[in-house]
Design goal:
The chain is mainly alpha-helical and 99 residues long. The chain folds into two domains: 46 residues, Arc Repressor Mutant; 34 residues. It has four helices and no strands. The longest helix has 17 residues.
């Protein structure tokens, strides 16, 4: 049987010291190696990602500065992101044209 390590790749991973300490404590509590715990977290995270639909593509456009600033100001007043405001605006416009 082929050695499992042959199927592995080595990756460098830089972590904040506190996060690394948390991982070490968590691995010790579970009687696991640090590497196996990180692999389990990655597998779990990838599984959760598969339940999230991929983002939709929005075509990039160039806006005149005055128009951009006006949209940004309205988005700030409504406490939403610029992108969310534009998408809502476009959706409302499309709904209006369907009538």
């Amino acid at each position: 049987m082929e050695d499992e390590r042959v199927k592995m790749v080595l990756r460098d991973l830089y972590l904040p010291r506190e996060l690394d300490a948390q991982l070490l404590r968590s691995a010790e509590e579970r009687h696991m190696s640090w590497g196996n715990l990180v692999m389990e977290f990655i597998k779990q995270g990838l599984g959760e990602l598969s339940n999230i639909p991929p983002p939709t593509r929005i075509a990039p456009v160039q806006l005149p500065c005055q128009l951009y600033d006006g949209i940004a100001e309205r988005a700030r007043r409504r406490k939403v992101s610029f992108d969310e405001f534009v998408v809502n605006l476009l959706q409302a416009e499309l709904k209006g044209k369907k009538r």
